[in-house]
Amino acid sequence: MTKVRYENDIQTEVLKDKKIAVVGYGSQGHAHALNLRESGYDVVVGLRPGKSQQKAEEDGFDVHSVAEAVSQADVVMVLLPDEHQTAVYTESIKSNLQPGNAIAFAHGFNIHFSQIVPPEDVDVFLVAPKGPGHLVRRTYEGGAGVPALFGVYQDVTGNAAELALAYAQGIGAARAGVLETTFQEETETDLFGEQAVLCGGLTSLIKAGFETLTEAGYQPEVAYFECLHEMKLIVDLIYEGGLENMRYSISDTAQWGDFASGPRIVDEDTKARMKEVLTDIQTGEFAKGWILENQANRPKFNAINKKENNHQIEKVGKELRDLMPFVKQPLQAKQSKQKDVKEHVTN
Ligand SMILES: NC(=O)C1=CN([C@@H]2O[C@H](COP(=O)(O)OP(=O)(O)OC[C@H]3O[C@@H](n4cnc5c(N)ncnc54)[C@H](OP(=O)(O)O)[C@@H]3O)[C@@H](O)[C@H]2O)C=CC1
Ligand SMILES: CC[C@](O)(C(C)=O)C(=O)O
Ligand SMILES: [Mg+2]
Ligand SMILES: [Mg+2]
């Protein structure tokens, strides 16, 4: 089994006397900054003027321009949206890095696809939590953590791996487990996971199930509970004890249906298409498309996002969730992200 590091395996001294600039205060940024501060580290936040700046100040941080925060820091964690990192790096980060500093990422996209080429005299590492930022914060507050991968791209000081591990410990990841990776492995597996399984695969599965039932004349509310709401309850059982644990709790009828019909839905053809998705990621085809989409001001992204937000499942879901206040988490109430999809949730 691959080596998984926990709190007792990690030396944190290497980071204790360092100043950490967290650049960006969105999903990951707010979680890293708050968790690191509560773990005893010296954190400054780098931002442009705006909503996030206001939030970080309300949370008691020294907030500076990105250039100023970077010039004060020994370790710079870049937690901007992937598609904005190159421009901000070129404009405000690069010239403010000192030899021997470290620049870090929570996802390897821009280093792996050569959008950012760091100077040769700095350490470059990643600490990539395997979970959404709001849960990196929420689990830390609850005394637990979200697992993370760490990896070193460039080790100038000889301390890059120790710095990455101490950083992972600071955000609470070592409570759950920290695994070593490379920028290539993290980037390719993370993109594949979110596209084929966690986000793209899951939302497509939920919508297809909901549409199949409603198009057959069943009530949308029943279809919502069956295909979306109950998903979390089933996944909780898988998360807690694997597939067997979930199958222990469901009826034998459901388990037989799982065995008999599951492979009719996700079959060898589905797997072949998953392999195509993985190939597009590995060849850089996906990255190229995403970079071009942003250069064109996201025409497809915005159009699809609008259509998705108007899907019947979203309307029915909102009505039902309003009647179940217990399902609403602080993330929705406190949401500060600018992305359309997230504003839709808040509003
Ligand atoms: N979301 C997640 O859970 C995960 C994300 N990651 C990685 O973490 C990184 C950050 O992603 P995520 O947390 O989703 O990002 P968000 O979109 O949530 O946050 C972006 C932050 O960057 C700020 N920002 C945007 N543009 C600029 C700019 N030009 N100058 C200064 N600040 C700017 C925003 O501030 P403002 O309010 O001013 O717009 C906001 O505070 C990415 O590399 C991502 O792949 C990795 C694991 C999981
Ligand atoms: C699953 C999406 C993710 O990779 C994540 C939360 O881990 C992301 O990029 O947001
Ligand atoms: Mg991820
Ligand atoms: Mg990701």
UniProtKB/TrEMBL annotation:
Needed cofactors: Mg(2+)
Gene Ontology cellular-component annotations: cytosol
Binding site for Mg(2+) 2: D190, E226, E230
Residue span(s) of domain KARI C-terminal knotted: 182-327
Amino-acid positions noted as binding Mg(2+) 1 in the UniProt annotation, renumbered to this chain: D190, E194
Xref: SMART domains: CoA_binding (SM00881)
Catalytic activity, as annotated: (2R,3R)-2,3-dihydroxy-3-methylpentanoate + NADP(+) = (S)-2-ethyl-2-hydroxy-3-oxobutanoate + NADPH + H(+); (2R)-2,3-dihydroxy-3-methylbutanoate + NADP(+) = (2S)-2-acetolactate + NADPH + H(+)
Keyword Membrane in annotation: no
Active-site residues annotated for this sequence: H107
Pathway(s): Amino-acid biosynthesis; L-valine biosynthesis; L-valine from pyruvate: step 2/4; Amino-acid biosynthesis; L-isoleucine biosynthesis; L-isoleucine from 2-oxobutanoate: step 2/4
Gene3D superfamilies, alphabetized: 6.10.240.10, NAD(P)-binding Rossmann-like Domain
Cofactor: how bound: Binds 2 magnesium ions per subunit.
GO biological process, one term: L-valine biosynthetic process
EC assignment: 1.1.1.86
Residues given in the record as NADP(+) binding sites: Y25, G26, S27, Q28, R48, S52, G133
Keyword Magnesium: yes
Binding site for substrate: S251
Record's keyword terms, sorted: Amino-acid biosynthesis, Branched-chain amino acid biosynthesis, Magnesium, Metal-binding, NADP, Oxidoreductase
Major enzyme class: oxidoreductase
Segments forming domain KARI N-terminal Rossmann: 2-181
Function as written in the Swiss-Prot or TrEMBL entry: Involved in the biosynthesis of branched-chain amino acids (BCAA). Catalyzes an alkyl-migration followed by a ketol-acid reduction of (S)-2-acetolactate (S2AL) to yield (R)-2,3-dihydroxy-isovalerate. In the isomerase reaction, S2AL is rearranged via a Mg-dependent methyl migration to produce 3-hydroxy-3-methyl-2-ketobutyrate (HMKB). In the reductase reaction, this 2-ketoacid undergoes a metal-dependent reduction by NADPH to yield (R)-2,3-dihydroxy-isovalerate.
Family, per entry: Belongs to the ketol-acid reductoisomerase family.
Alphabetized NCBIfam families for the sequence: ilvC, PRK05479.1, PRK13403.1
HAMAP family membership: IlvC
Protein name per its UniProtKB record: Ketol-acid reductoisomerase (NADP(+))
Species assigned in the record: Oceanobacillus jordanicus
